[in-house]
Amino acid sequence: LFHHPRRHHGVVRQGYRIMNFKQIYNDAAVLLEKCGWIQGDYGSPLRGFCVLGALKEAAPGHPDDCDVKGPLVENVNEKCISGWNDDDDRTAIEVISKLREVAASCP
Prior knowledge:
The chain is α+β, with helices and mostly antiparallel strands. Helix content is 46%, strand content 14%.
């Protein structure tokens, strides 16, 4: 039985697994540090991840269908996170730093 993720006070309920946003965002930053950062695709452990791909990997489920990306949207003040990630001037260090900043701001 699959349970859709639900957001409640900074916590995502994934079936019986509970993850908080701080953990998800820190885990996504670690994934980018270990696997690399890419643009234009969610990615994979072998090729690296975009910011949404890293969030998806860090929080199994579908970040686009739940509020996992909500704190990042609020922080970068853009509705289109993929556009923010794929900006020609964006850097891996900037994306990883932003994930850590969002993690630090989560309860």
